[in-house]
From TrEMBL, chain A:
<keyword id="KW-1133">Transmembrane helix</keyword>
<feature type="transmembrane region" description="Helical">
    <location>
        <begin position="117"/>
        <end position="140"/>
    </location>
</feature>
<feature type="compositionally biased region" description="Polar residues">
    <location>
        <begin position="1"/>
        <end position="10"/>
    </location>
</feature>
<dbReference type="GO" id="GO:0005789">
    <property type="term" value="C:endoplasmic reticulum membrane"/>
</dbReference>
<feature type="transmembrane region" description="Helical">
    <location>
        <begin position="229"/>
        <end position="248"/>
    </location>
</feature>
<protein>
    <submittedName>
        <fullName>Phosphatidylinositol-glycan biosynthesis class F protein</fullName>
    </submittedName>
</protein>
<keyword id="KW-0812">Transmembrane</keyword>
<feature type="region of interest" description="Disordered">
    <location>
        <begin position="1"/>
        <end position="39"/>
    </location>
</feature>
<feature type="transmembrane region" description="Helical">
    <location>
        <begin position="84"/>
        <end position="105"/>
    </location>
</feature>
UniProtKB/TrEMBL annotation, chain B:
<keyword id="KW-0325">Glycoprotein</keyword>
<feature type="transmembrane region" description="Helical">
    <location>
        <begin position="698"/>
        <end position="718"/>
    </location>
</feature>
<keyword id="KW-0337">GPI-anchor biosynthesis</keyword>
<keyword id="KW-1133">Transmembrane helix</keyword>
<feature type="transmembrane region" description="Helical">
    <location>
        <begin position="927"/>
        <end position="956"/>
    </location>
</feature>
<dbReference type="GO" id="GO:0005789">
    <property type="term" value="C:endoplasmic reticulum membrane"/>
</dbReference>
<feature type="domain" description="GPI ethanolamine phosphate transferase 2 C-terminal">
    <location>
        <begin position="525"/>
        <end position="949"/>
    </location>
</feature>
<feature type="transmembrane region" description="Helical">
    <location>
        <begin position="661"/>
        <end position="678"/>
    </location>
</feature>
<feature type="transmembrane region" description="Helical">
    <location>
        <begin position="798"/>
        <end position="815"/>
    </location>
</feature>
Length: 258, 972
C-alpha cells in the first residue's frame, strides 16, 4: 500500500507539471487555482493498481458477451432478428455491470455513498439516452414509429457506454464532464476508463453506420444493428486502449518512483 | 474571370487572380477533353428516310421528301414497292422479344449445338431449326446491354450515344428514324404486349397494347402470363400487321438465380410453347393463303453466369435473332454471327420500307436467298446507299468522287478506303447489269459484285459503329492530366495563400495566439470528408445513395463544431467572460442546433436515392395530405424566408434609412410572388395562362433589377464608415482605415441582396413541395454564417467556406435531387417562358437543380463581411489589393479547390471503370451532375469575385476622390 501512496504522490507532481501548458493555451491565468482545486483532490486516486483495473476492465468487457449469451440462450433472441429486445437485454445487463463497477470508482468516496453513485448512474442513463438518441437522429437515424423502440434501446446502450460511467463517477460536476467529453484530456486511471471507451463507442458507432446505404441487402445493414456492432467494437477497443494507457502510466510512475 | 486588376492592387493579388484563372482555364480544357473522349459525339441524321432512299445519292430529293409525308399510307406503300424493285417477302411480322435470353441457349456456341438440357427445354424450337423452318443467329449486342438502348438499336439500327438521354430529357419517346415509325407511315396496325418500355419509346403508335413493367423482379410467372393471355385472341384476329410480344420473365429468372437457375428450364419450356403456338398459327394462315407471317424471336441482351447484364462480356452481348416462317429458309453455310443492329435493315428490306436513316447495320443476306439475283443485288445497293448517306455526315464532304482510288490504293485508310470500296462495288454492279442486258452474264460477275458490296457494307458498318462506341484513351488520359495539373495548381495556390494569411495574421494580431498553426479537429475533419467522398465514388451504390454521405458528413462536421463551442464554454472561464459573451456562446449553440435540425428535416424531406426511394418521406406524406396543406406550407416558408432576411438585415446594423430602402426594393416582388402562390392555389401547374406567364416574367425582371441595382448602387451610396463603429471606435481609429467598414458593409448588403433574390426566385420556380426545404436551407446558411462570424472561436475562414459548401451540397440532395437524370425538374424549366427556347429552359433548369449549392456560394459573400477584418485594419496604409485578396481569397479558392479535387477523383474513377457494368446507368449520369456542379462553382465563384472586385474599385476611387478633396481643402 505504501507503494501506492508513493505513486499517487508522484502522479500529482506529474499532473501539476503537465497541466500548466494546457491551461496556458486557455489564456486564463486567473484560472489556475480554481481549476486545480478539484483536480488535486482527485489526485488522491488517479492511478490504481494495474491488477485491480484489469479486473474492472474485464468485468466491463465481459458484461457484453455474457449479455448476448443470456439473450440468446434464455430468450433465444439475436440482434439481427429481434434487435430491439436483444438491445434491451444487453443494455440492462451491461448497465448494471457498468454502474456497479464505476460506482466503486466514484469521486470523493467519503462524501458520496455507493447508493448515491448508483442513483446518479441511473439518472445519467436516461439523460445520456436522450442525448444519444438526438445525436443519432440528427445524423440520420430513421424516426418512424417502427424504428422508435430500436432507437430507444440503442441509445440506452450507447448511454451505458458513454454517460453512465461519467455520471456514476463525477455526478454533475461540469468541469469534469467538460474535461472528459469536450476537451478529451483525461487525467488519471478513472478518467482513462471513462474517456477512452466512451469515445471509442461513439467513433465506432459513427463508422458502424457506413455500410448502411450500401445495396448489399444484408439483414445486418438495418438500423441499428451495424451501428451497434460498431459501437460495441469501439467500446471494447476503448477498454483495451484505456487499460494499455493505465499500465503504461503505472509503469512510468513506477520507474519514476524508484 | 476573377478580377480585372487595377494598378492600385498589390502584385500578389494580381498574381493570385492570374494563376487562379489559369488553373480554371486548364481545368475547363481538361474537362472538355475528357467529355469529348468519354461521350463521343457522332453526327446523326434527323428526320425519316422516305422515297429518296430508293434513289442514288446525287439525286435531287427535295420534292420527294415532301411527297413522302404528303402521300396517304396505302399509296406510299405501293410506291415504296414499285421503287424498291424488291417485293416484300412477308406481309406481317410477329416480333417476340425474350428479355435476356442468351443465343447460346438456342443455337449453341462455336458451331456446337446447345447442351442436351437446354435442347430438351425447347423441343419445338430445336425441331423447326432442324427442319430449316427457322434460322438463328448470334446477334452481338453493343454495350450498355440494358433493355431500352437495345430496343432502340434493334428498331433503328443505330447505336445511340449516352448523351442522347441527356439531350432529349423531356421525353423518353424515341424520335430518331426507326422501323416502328416507318411501319406506322405505311399504315400498319400495330399491337404491343409486354414490357412497357415500348410504350415509353413509341407513345400512341400502337393500336392495342398491354404493358407490363419490370418493377417486380421477383415475379417470373405473372409478368409473362399477362402477355400470353392475349395470345389466342390476337393470333386469331387478322387486323394487325405487327405484333410485338415482349416477355420479361426470363430476365427476371436470371436476376433471381442466374443462368443455371431451377426456374430456367420451365421458363424456356414456356417460351418454347409460345413459339409453338405462334408457329402453328402461322402455318395455318399460310395454308389458307391469307397472309405470309414472319416470326422473329429476338432477345435484347444476354446474361452473365450470375444473371446480370449491362456490361460488354460475351455472355451479356450474345443475344438471339431467330427468323421463323412457314417456308423453308434456304440452307447456306455463311456466318451465323451478326450484329444486333443488322436487324433493322433486314426487317426494313423484308417488309419493303426504307432503311432508317441512322442505321449502321448490314442486311442479313441469308434471309433473302429466295429472291432473284438482281433483287439481291438491289437489296445490297439500297443498304449501301443508306450507309453512304450516313458516312457522308461523318466526312462532311459531298461525295466519294474526289478520291483517286486507283493510284494510291495501298495507302488509303479510314473513310477514303470505304469510299473506294463503294466505288468498286458500284462499278462491278454496273458491269453486271450491262452484261446482263447483253445476255452474257456470268456467275462470277454476280459473285464479285456481291462480294464488292459486302466488303463495303462490312467495313463501313464496322467503322461507323467503332465511331460511336470507342473511347479514345489518349483523350481521356490527357484530360485527366490537365485536371490533375489544375487541381495541383489550385491546391498550391490555396496553400500559399493560407501561409501568407497566417503569417500576416500572426504578425499583426496575435502574440498570444500560438495555435494558429495548430490543426484542429474540425479542420482535419473537413479534409477527411473530401477523402471519404473520394472513397465513396468507387462504389456504385454509394453514388446512387450519395445524399446519405453528404448529410452524414455535414451533420458530423457541425456536431464537431458544437463540441468545439462547448469546449470553449469552460466553467473556469466564466469569471473572465462577461454576461454578453456568455450569451453569444449560447447563441452559437442555438445556431448549430438550428443547422443540425434543419439539416435533418431536409434529409427527411425527400428520401432520394435509388434503392430506397419508395420509403416514406415528408414530401410523400404531404402530397397525400393534399394541395391545401402544401399551399399553407408554401406561405409559411415564404414568411420564414422574409423573416430571416429581415432579421439578417437588422443584424447588419445599417442606418434605418438604408434598411428601409432595401425593404422597399423587395416589397413589390415579394407581394407579386405571394400573389402568384395564392393564385396557383386553384389552378394546377400545368395550365399556366398567358397572364400568369407575363406576371412571372415581371417578377424575373424585378428580382434581376433589384439585385443588379443593389450591386451597382450600394458601393457608391454606402457611407465610408459604419455609424456604429463611428460612434464607438472613432476615438482610437485613424481616419485612413475607415473605408474598410464601408467596403465590408457594402459586401454584406450585396450578399444579402443576392441571397434574398435567389431565395425568392426559388420560391417561385421550385415545386410547391420544395418551398419549405428552400427556407430551411436559407436558415442553415444564415445560421452557419452567424455561427462562424462572432465570438473568438477562431475558426479559420477556409473551414467556414468549406462548411458552407458542404451544407450547400447536402441541401442539393435535400431538395430531392439524385444522381439519376430522372429527378431533374423539367416542368419547372418552363415557368414564365412564353416561347420554347432550349437555352432559357436550360438555364432555368440549372437554377432549379443547383438552387442549394449556388445559395451557399453566394452566401460566402456575406460571410466575408461578417468576418473580422482586423488583420486588414491594422495595416497602416489603405491597400485595396490586399483587402480584396484577404476578403475573397478563400471564398474563391476553397470551392474551386474542393470541386477540383472531387472532379479529378471522379474522372479518374471513370477512367478506371469505363468498362464497368454500371458505367451507363450509374456512373455517367453522376458525371453529368459533377460537370454541372463544376459549372455551378464557376458561376458562383465568379459572381463573388467580380462583385468584390467591383466594390473594391468603387471604394478605391471614392477614397482617392476624398483624399484629393481633402488635399484641395488643406491647400486652400
Amino acid at each position: 500500500m505504501s507503494q501506492v501512496g508513493g505513486q499517487t504522490e508522484t502522479s500529482r507532481l506529474e499532473f501539476g507539471s503537465s497541466s500548466s501548458p494546457s491551461s496556458s493555451i486557455l489564456l486564463q491565468p486567473m484560472n489556475h487555482p480554481r481549476k486545480k482545486a478539484p483536480e488535486s483532490t482527485d489526485a488522491a486516486v488517479p492511478f490504481a493498481s494495474s491488477l485491480k483495473l484489469l479486473l474492472l476492465h474485464l468485468i466491463c468487457a465481459l458484461g457484453l458477451p455474457s449479455a448476448f449469451w443470456v439473450a440468446f440462450n434464455s430468450y433465444s433472441l439475436s440482434l439481427i432478428q429481434n434487435s430491439a429486445q436483444t438491445l434491451l437485454v444487453v443494455w440492462a445487463i451491461e448497465a448494471s455491470v457498468v454502474i456497479l463497477v464505476y460506482s466503486l470508482l466514484r469521486r470523493n468516496p467519503d462524501q458520496c455513498s455507493n447508493v448515491k453513485a448508483i442513483v446518479r448512474g441511473l439518472l445519467g442513463l436516461l439523460a445520456g439516452a436522450l442525448v444519444n438518441a438526438l445525436g443519432a437522429i440528427v445524423l440520420g437515424a430513421p424516426v418512424g414509429i417502427q424504428h422508435f423502440t430500436k432507437t430507444i434501446h440503442w441509445s440506452l446502450l450507447m448511454s451505458v457506454f458513454t454517460f453512465v460511467p461519467a455520471a456514476s463517477v463525477f455526478g454533475s460536476s461540469w468541469t469534469d464532464w467538460h474535461r472528459i467529453f469536450a476537451q478529451t484530456k483525461p487525467i488519471g486511471s478513472t478518467d482513462f476508463m471513462i474517456c477512452f471507451p466512451a469515445h471509442g463507442a461513439v467513433i465506432g458507432a459513427w463508422f458502424g453506420a457506413w455500410p448502411m446505404p450500401l445495396d448489399w441487402e444484408r439483414p445486418w445493414q438495418e438500423w441499428p444493428i451495424c451501428v451497434t456492432y460498431g459501437a460495441i467494437f469501439g467500446y471494447l477497443l476503448g477498454l483495451v486502449v484505456s487499460f494499455g494507457f493505465v499500465v503504461y502510466n503505472n509503469q512510468r510512475k513506477h520507474a519514476k518512483g524508484e | 474571370m476573377r478580377k480585372r486588376a487595377n494598378n492600385y492592387y498589390s502584385l500578389t493579388c494580381k498574381k493570385l487572380a492570374f494563376f487562379t484563372v489559369l488553373a480554371v482555364v486548364i481545368q475547363i480544357i481538361g474537362l472538355s477533353l475528357f467529355i469529348l473522349g468519354f461521350f463521343p459525339v457522332k453526327p446523326t441524321l434527323s428526320g425519316m428516310s422516305g422515297l429518296e432512299s430508293f434513289y442514288p445519292l446525287g439525286f435531287d430529293s427535295t420534292d420527294l421528301a415532301q411527297n413522302t409525308s404528303a402521300l396517304p399510307p396505302e399509296k406510299l406503300k405501293s410506291l415504296y414497292q414499285e421503287l424498291s424493285g424488291v417485293p416484300p417477302l412477308f406481309d406481317r411480322l410477329i416480333l417476340m422479344v425474350i428479355d435476356g435470353l442468351p443465343a447460346e441457349f438456342v443455337i449453341g456456341k462455336d458451331g456446337k449445338p446447345p447442351p442436351e438440357v437446354l435442347k430438351k427445354a425447347m423441343p419445338y424450337t430445336q425441331s423447326i431449326l432442324a427442319k430449316g423452318l427457322a434460322v438463328g443467329y448470334h446477334a452481338k449486342a453493343a454495350p450498355p446491354t440494358v433493355t431500352m438502348p437495345r430496343l432502340k438499336a434493334m428498331v433503328s439500327g443505330a447505336l445511340g450515344g449516352f448523351l442522347d438521354v441527356a439531350t432529349n430529357f423531356n421525353t423518353q419517346a424515341f424520335l430518331d428514324d426507326n422501323l416502328i415509325a416507318q411501319f406506322l407511315r405505311i399504315g400498319w396496325k400495330m399491337v404491343m404486349l409486354g414490357d412497357e418500355t415500348w410504350l415509353k419509346l413509341f407513345p400512341d403508335m400502337f393500336a392495342r397494347h398491354d404493358g407490363v413493367n419490370s418493377f417486380f423482379v421477383k415475379d417470373t410467372i405473372q409478368v409473362d402470363y399477362n402477355v400470353s393471355r392475349h395470345l389466342t385472341t390476337e393470333l386469331s384476329s387478322t387486323d394487325w400487321d405487327l405484333l410485338i410480344l415482349h416477355y420479361l420473365g426470363l430476365d427476371h429468372v436470371g436476376h433471381i438465380g442466374g443462368r443455371s437457375s431451377n426456374l430456367m428450364g420451365p421458363k424456356l419450356m414456356e417460351m418454347d410453347e409460345v413459339i409453338k403456338r405462334i408457329h402453328s398459327s402461322i402455318m395455318q394462315t399460310q395454308e389458307t393463303k391469307q397472309k405470309r407471317t414472319l416470326l422473329m424471336v429476338v432477345s435484347d441482351h444476354g446474361m452473365t453466369e450470375g444473371g446480370n447484364h449491362g456490361g460488354s462480356s460475351y455472355e451479356e452481348t450474345d443475344s438471339l435473332a431467330l427468323f421463323v416462317s412457314g417456308q423453308k429458309f434456304s440452307d447456306s453455310e455463311s456466318r451465323k454471327e451478326v450484329y444486333q443492329v443488322d436487324m433493322a435493315s433486314t426487317l426494313a428490306l423484308l417488309f419493303g420500307v426504307p432503311i432508317p436513316k441512322n442505321n449502321i447495320g448490314t442486311v442479313i443476306r441469308d434471309v433473302f436467298t429466295s429472291l432473284k439475283d438482281e433483287q439481291q443485288l438491289r437489296i445490297l445497293e439500297l443498304n449501301s446507299w443508306q450507309l453512304l448517306r450516313l458516312l457522308q455526315t461523318h466526312l462532311n464532304e459531298l461525295g466519294c468522287g474526289r478520291f483517286s482510288c486507283k493510284s494510291e490504293r495501298g495507302q488509303n485508310y479510314g473513310p477514303e478506303r470505304l469510299c473506294c470500296s463503294y466505288l468498286d462495288a458500284t462499278a462491278l454492279h454496273e458491269s453486271w447489269k450491262s452484261k446482263r442486258l447483253l445476255r452474257s452474264v456470268h456467275g462470277d460477275d454476280y459473285r464479285s459484285a456481291v462480294l464488292g458490296y459486302l466488303e463495303f457494307l462490312g467495313t463501313t458498318s464496322k467503322w461507323l459503329s467503332s465511331r460511336s462506341t470507342d473511347k479514345p484513351i489518349g483523350l481521356l488520359v490527357s484530360g485527366v492530366a490537365a485536371l490533375l495539373l489544375s487541381c495541383l495548381g489550385l491546391m498550391t495556390l490555396t496553400f500559399l495563400f493560407t501561409r501568407e494569411v497566417n503569417f500576416k495574421g500572426s504578425r499583426d494580431i496575435s502574440h498570444t495566439d500560438n495555435n494558429i498553426w495548430k490543426w484542429h479537429l474540425e479542420e482535419n475533419f473537413v479534409l477527411a470528408v473530401i477523402f471519404i467522398l473520394i472513397l465513396s465514388m468507387g462504389s456504385s451504390s454509394m453514388i446512387e445513395e450519395e445524399q446519405y454521405i453528404w448529410h452524414y458528413m455535414t451533420s458530423s462536421l457541425y456536431l464537431i463544431l458544437l463540441r468545439k463551442t462547448i469546449q470553449s464554454m469552460k466553467n473556469g472561464c466564466t469569471l473572465t467572460l462577461t454576461a454578453e459573451q456568455r450569451k453569444i456562446r449560447f447563441h452559437h449553440i442555438y445556431y448549430i442546433v438550428a443547422v443540425l435540425v434543419s439539416g435533418r428535416i431536409l434529409r427527411g424531406w425527400h428520401q432520394g436515392g435509388v434503392n430506397w426511394s419508395y420509403l416514406p418521406d415528408i414530401a410523400k406524406l404531404l402530397e397525400q395530405a393534399g394541395t391545401a396543406h402544401i399551399k399553407s406550407l408554401q406561405l409559411l416558408s415564404m414568411f420564414l424566408v422574409i423573416t430571416i432576411c429581415l432579421a439578417v438585415l437588422l443584424s447588419l446594423g445599417l442606418r434605418t434609412r438604408v434598411s428601409m430602402l432595401l425593404v422597399l426594393v423587395y416589397l413589390f416582388p415579394v407581394l407579386l410572388i405571394l400573389k402568384q402562390i395564392l393564385r396557383l392555389q386553384d389552378s394546377t401547374f400545368g395550365s399556366l395562362s398567358v397572364r400568369s406567364t407575363t406576371m412571372i416574367q415581371i417578377i424575373y425582371a424585378f428580382l434581376g433589377t433589384s439585385s443588379a441595382g443593389i450591386l451597382l448602387g450600394t458601393p457608391w451610396l454606402m457611407p465610408l464608415q459604419n455609424p456604429k463603429t463611428l460612434s464607438s471606435e472613432v476615438s482610437h481609429e485613424s481616419p485612413s482605415k475607415l473605408p474598410f467598414d464601408g467596403f465590408k458593409d457594402s459586401l454584406c448588403v450585396i450578399g444579402w441582396g443576392y441571397m434574398f433574390s435567389w431565395c425568392l426566385l426559388q420560391m417561385l420556380l421550385q415545386q410547391p413541395i420544395n418551398s419549405v426545404p428552400v427556407s430551411l436551407l436559407l436558415l442553415q446558411v444564415v445560421a452557419s454564417i452567424h455561427y462562424f462570424s462572432g465570438g473568438n472561436l477562431r475558426h479559420k475562414q477556409w473551414v467556414e467556406v468549406a462548411a458552407l459548401y458542404y451544407v450547400g451540397m447536402a441541401g442539393h440532395f435535400g431538395l430531392g435531387n439524385t444522381n439519376t437524370l430522372a429527378t431533374v425538374d423539367v416542368a419547372g424549366a418552363f415557368i414564365g417562358i412564353s416561347s420554347h427556347s432550349t437555352i432559357i429552359s436550360g438555364i432555368l433548369m440549372f437554377i432549379i437543380t443547383y438552387a442549394s449549392p449556388m445559395l451557399a456560394l453566394l452566401s460566402t459573400l456575406m460571410s466575408v463581411c461578417a468576418n473580422d477584418v482586423r488583420t486588414v485594419s491594422n495595416s497602416q496604409d489603405v491597400d485595396f489589393g490586399y483587402l480584396l485578396k484577404t476578403t475573397v481569397g478563400y471564398p474563391c479558392l476553397v470551392p474551386l479547390g474542393l470541386n477540383s479535387i472531387l472532379l479529378l477523383a471522379y474522372t479518374i474513377v471513370l477512367l478506371g471503370m469505363r468498362n464497368h457494368l454500371f458505367i451507363w446507368s450509374v456512373f455517367s449520369p453522376k458525371f453529368l451532375y459533377v460537370c454541372a456542379t463544376t459549372v455551378c462553382v464557376y458561376v458562383g465563384v465568379s459572381i463573388v469575385a467580380l462583385t468584390a472586385t467591383y466594390t473594391c474599385i468603387v471604394f478605391a476611387t471614392r477614397s482617392t476622390l476624398k483624399g484629393s478633396c481633402r488635399d484641395r481643402l488643406t491647400e486652400r
